[in-house]
């Protein structure tokens, strides 16, 4: 929209926005462009937002699997897929507000981009999906055309076509860094949060944010005299509580050293993702960012019934009353369940206390905003959990301003690593396959065991609920 507002020609082309299926999100993106073209055989799947949650409790019960899970508090629904067969009242309330908030953003964007009244956009959403000709008639697209016809039209406007990758290379800074240059450090934290180094997640689903890697990057930026501000880009559903606390501490130390820290939230900065962000001077989120989820859950599956049905027997030698506490072959004893709840209370109290400290509110206010509830960026901003709405560019501008740097001050990525170092294997003689298998089972406690055995996703104690599909 900023590019368009500058008077530049902006054209969006799509073969289809969902092949007579859901295509709300890609169409929303396209409406930021002045002209929207659609292939004649394409459709506009403008149908709204659907958040679907599946529950496997009854399926697990049929095979003799039971879950013992504690959570803090009612909105922390990450484990509900295993422990419930329906949405709780708090679960439905939270998802309904998230869906409403996302739709509000989509309606406002489409209304602005297509110059339609918001009420008309909502009517169109309820009438979708649309065939190509219907979309033109409704004002959702400008005309039907093939890709080559769109290219020809752009050329007729007097412009030439250039791949964005080639353009990006052409505008890279030509100057080399020089001694005494004042810079902004940019640190990316992406994926599930775990102890150790960043890399591919052992549980699948993309990268993992390693506390060692991120803490070292923040520490290096803090100690570098050339760095005057830090922008921490967070895109994470959460993960390990201890790993999140390691990163949180480094953010605190950077601020104590007098270096402004600005967090830029991506698609997700929830639970542990919010934990690592909450100590920053300024938190910037997109309106559609999913954040908050300030809470914790933990427990284990009990496979005793399943093992019995399969004719599998299990024996153990235990030295210590609770040495077999996390065995999936048996349920928690009353004493062990008390220890689980003590741990959950400790984690939640620490989380809420640090939210109160970082956001400048009292503990009761922080608790009301917490309770495990997930917020969109827009709602988090309204409740004071984030400071500004915007993207990475906005966060960099805030960091430069806070540090008293010029608007074009250099941005330097951290951690800084020599290209040859990237090729060096980890400093460990442990077999990689064995290490990954072990991490998969031990990464975040007993929940990972059943996930590994049943092929279900494993979660950390500070993790956003999964299996949401925005269509």
From TrEMBL:
Molecular-function annotations in GO: serine-type peptidase activity
Key words, A-Z: Hydrolase, Protease, Serine protease
Protein's name in the database: Protease
Classification via PANTHER family: PEPTIDASE S49 DOMAIN-CONTAINING PROTEIN, PROTEASE 4
Domain Peptidase S49: 24-156, 255-404
GO biological process, one term: proteolysis
A Pfam family of this chain: Peptidase_S49
CDD domains: S49_SppA_67K_type, S49_Sppa_N_C
Family to which this protein belongs: Belongs to the peptidase S49 family.
Database matches in NCBIfam families: SppA_dom (TIGR00706)
Annotated organism of origin: Sphaerisporangium melleum
